[in-house]
Amino acid sequence: MDRPAGRRPTVKDVAKLAGVSQGTVSNALSGMRGVDPVTRQRIDQAVAQLGYVPNLAARRMRTGMTHAIAVMTSMPAAVSAGSSRLGFLMEIAASAAIHALEHNSALVLVPPVADPATALRNVAMDGAIIIEPQRDDAFLSLLRQRGLPTVVIGQPAQDDLPWIDMHYSETAEMLLSHLLQQGSRRIALIIGASQRVSQGITEQVYHAQMQRFGIAPRVIRVPEAEGEEGAYRVTRALLQQDPGLDGIFAPVDAFASGVMRALREEGRAVPGEVRVVTRYDGLRAREERPALTAANLHLDQVAAMATRVLMDLIAGREIAHCTKGPSPSLVIRDSSAVQGG
Amino acid sequence: MDRPAGRRPTVKDVAKLAGVSQGTVSNALSGMRGVDPVTRQRIDQAVAQLGYVPNLAARRMRTGMTHAIAVMTSMPAAVSAGSSRLGFLMEIAASAAIHALEHNSALVLVPPVADPATALRNVAMDGAIIIEPQRDDAFLSLLRQRGLPTVVIGQPAQDDLPWIDMHYSETAEMLLSHLLQQGSRRIALIIGASQRVSQGITEQVYHAQMQRFGIAPRVIRVPEAEGEEGAYRVTRALLQQDPGLDGIFAPVDAFASGVMRALREEGRAVPGEVRVVTRYDGLRAREERPALTAANLHLDQVAAMATRVLMDLIAGREIAHCTKGPSPSLVIRDSSAVQGG
DNA sequence: CGCCTTGAGTAAAACGTTTTAAAGGTCGAG
DNA sequence: CTCGACCTTTAAAACGTTTTACTCAAGGCG
């Protein structure tokens, strides 16, 4: 493999060495068209000798394909930053990267930043996976504007985009049923104030369950931007106001952290006096003391599905508008165990 | 913004509408050369009207710049897969993504896969961050072969690549001193069998410390590929053979999990009878019961440094051969607390 | 034998941008 | 008035690949 000094060898160099035209080299390497076996062998040899590696940028410009997909979320930094939601994003990214590679594509990570427009300006991609977009999501509208194939993990607010169903209502039911089964009878829901699909559905399920058990509903909305701190504040107020509370459902794990801190400082025993559950089983849920009961959302499988659907979409294959993700499973931890359990 | 049906507007369309040449448009948009303010305004208006977005592939082919960097590791799957080491990789990737974006670059995630060659074939990048490479690292040799700027997180085995010092010896000293200070006097080191720089240094530090305290060293090597299971096996054997053991240092967190399981099944109290510490403070360390004392390696800062150095390297700026990362800090958890602490 | 099809190969165009070489114009100094 | 310096603008080249349109030869079939 002797490289012509300075310059990387091109298809032209290979063609010259093999004594054929550029077109034939292209056909031999990646081409659909037939090439005589003996010619192909000459070309292969030239490639090996020169150490030729195709220039991806040139190929991509010519074909229009980027061979890269992106993963992004527009969660506000207060809930997505640090180790909490970032875990959510990263679990999905890791799995998507592996599966993208199986389709000869790279995965680029678009971090949650203040300015989505500049973030996307420098990222080339064939399509995107967007995680739990909100109504009027900035990333989503940019993607639409560029006409990029997009798959939603979670549920789209109003769009007709293909999506992976994460079973929002099933998850909420599972966690609430667990609280009820453990004996909680005055259960509060602490939820984000934004217009997110997951929150709407969770709230609906909560109201239905409370009504079934004849429990007065107690919904507290926290602006997402206030994150853990906001949840801490409202929980302290809530505990003063309603001392008989014996269960809290805080789907956002950053909120759950705030809830736990409030309970500690109010001197309430968990799970003795108050049981707490959250949704995403990430670092926060596991590190809390007592550790939080949560749902295993099987994000690796969800991401694998999203990647496959996106690849189908990009390739122009037929796709299902909605793909059912794996059902969540309950991870019972100390924060909701029956007394003495 | 009225797009000429079907085709995305190009610089040529903008030029025509603004009544100037392509070159002037290019100069106005990204160019270094002067453009008359009034002309520039006409061009800006044309851009807005057409909704022009530069074709990144074309730009990249022309300039030779990809505006993307990659993060990769070649840790064997047994220790890097699942939530343990993957956490390590992802913590770095998340931080690198944010900082890459500040330099107008995307971050692509190269997952640890069986075949590095095919993994890299489809990834275009200006440079790479490689995490704790081993001797004769497959990724590393591919990067070298393609002549790509590379920064090592950890320490390179024999290469002259720029690297971010993660303070291997300082970390090992800190964790061992902690064990000694907590009263442990028969301390075993359970470490990977491979030729990794971090392991060599850790072992050296261990021997020095043991000698200083007049303790007979006890080093057990586990093939990395055996992961948690391997560590479990050797620890059970170790406990039978040396019942007086009162401290275990297992730098690899997957090994620490195996160690804890062995201790449980042998009925040894942690930290009562045996104290355990590990290195990377990830999901595994926090989720273990009792939770493991570990080192906060400040991976976000390490990744930020690596990204900056890589960007300097790509831009051809002067760089330091070795950059000191942040000093690790001790995170004391129950697995090493003094009795009754 | 004549005609059509097929297969292998080639030269040149095309992709959309940035860069280069050159040209036109203005302005000030001599 | 002339010359050079400087600024703006342009036409065309260049980047490295894939695709297109075409040629040429060989072979099958009537």
TrEMBL record, chains A, B:
HTH lacI-type domain location: 9-63
Protein name: Transcriptional regulator, LacI family
Origin species: Salipiger marinus
Keywords of this entry: DNA-binding, Repressor, Transcription, Transcription regulation
Keyword presence, Membrane: no
SUPFAM superfamilies reported in the protein's UniProt record: lambda repressor-like DNA-binding domains, Periplasmic binding protein-like I
Highest taxon of the lineage: Bacteria
PANTHER family found in the cross-reference section: HTH-TYPE TRANSCRIPTIONAL REPRESSOR CYTR, LACI-RELATED TRANSCRIPTIONAL REPRESSOR
Pfam families attached to this UniProt entry: LacI, Peripla_BP_3
